[in-house]
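S2.1 Query sequence (Cyclopropane-fatty-acyl-phospholipid synthase)
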Amino acid sequence: MAGRRTVADRLAAALSAVLGTTELPLRLRGWDGSVAGPPGAPVLAVRSRRALRRLVWSPGQLGLGRAYVAGEIDIEDDVFDTFAALRSVGRLAEKGRMVPPTARDRLGLVGTALRLGAIGPEPEPPAEEADLGRSGRRHSRRRDAAAISHHYDVGNDFYELVLGPSMVYSCAVWASPDTGLDAAQEAKLDLVCRKLGLTDGDRLLDVGCGWGSLAIHAAQRYGATVVGITLSEEQAQLARKRVAEVGLTDRIEIRVQDYREIDDGPFDAISSIGMSEHVGRAEMPPYARRLHDLLRPGGRLLNHAIAWNAGTTTWNPDTFIARYVFPDGELLGLGETVGLLEDGGALEVLDVEALRQHYALTLRAWVRRLEAEWDAAVAASSPGRARVWRLYMAACALAFESGEMGVNQVLLRRPGGEQPPLRRDAWV
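Output structure tokens follow.
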């Protein structure tokens, strides 16, 4: 019948309602094979009515994310092109949190679901979704350990496929886009050691040590003795194995330990690379005071952290990132982070370096590695887990490129002791 609306037509209307746009920048393929949307646009395939049902119950990024993780929505073209198209219109085009659909849009969404036979009970979330409700109050030691385990204890083999031999899970430092990920990660590790002013025999505390890469670099290249701490059992096991393989067990100790439990200071230097995002706004002042107390007078702290550049944030447990990637994580702005780290003058800021573009390059490299090793990554974890990492890393790369997110290294010192160099040339 002429003018009859296809499944894809109705799905396009439903997604437009969720995104808050009249011009969908994607081409949709329905579960019946019908297609709607502008020719040549990236194709999003909706493989199941369950995907539409998820949007009825959670009409925003969480519903879309759940459907993608569950395999009910699939990306048929380049993941970056697809997400860039989504971010170009409607509610996703505005920096900050995605605004919920209006009551009118939600009513239209329900009507579409009725016509397509998608109404029913709320589907169970995919198994990869975090549930920390039984782990105590937010940022208690028990709950922080559970949050870290959710993200990092997903299999060392999986991370090795994504990160490569460097096993560094934070922003690399690129001399140029052609540098290559492994060389860029080594450059970052060396930059951290230079900023901390490490010399032979210095004692370094690496808070959130990951798989031990910085500890090994600092001991091998600078003669430091290192205590590395993590809350991830799997990270610690592999870090210890890597330390033993390079013959550094006499210089490096890897512990499963909360930073609040360390009592064997002082240290000459402290590195916190990609860790303070897990601390939370309310816990930043005691975090800064604790690290201050663990430093000797004149000792340096390097805090390397992602920043939210799109205005003031409040913790929201119902975002895709909070449910699937970094439960209880919280991004602060650079100014707020510096203020909390200074903590009334207890720590003195020596240097701030922005690395926003570097993280976009790093994330794109990780996505390329994940996609190149897709079958192995799925075998090492789960189809849903691989989808989570692909979605979050690609979306974050675009957020760094747009300036919505940044990443900064803040170098501080505990007052006293020897004076720092007059110019930053000493570590650049």
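Residues 148 and 200 are 32 Å apart (CA to CA). The chain has two domains: 7-115, 141-426.
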